[in-house]
Structure prediction request, 71 residues.
Amino acid sequence: KQLLVSRNESNVNQDLYLVEVAGGAVKQLTPHKGDVQFENAHWSTDGKHVYCTTTAEGRDLSALAEIEVAS
Prediction:
């Protein structure tokens, strides 16, 4: 039903999106300001979460993140 899409602005700035296959509606999962990395994104087995590595929240090094798709 949905595709998980990564958009690379640069090597230090990425975003993750959900794209509905049927209608093409797009939802940004990772709104942010400035350069933030969101990499290696994968669905959870139940499809309710996306796991990725990120430098969000001012991190110098990537950490694991869990993004709840519904919210």
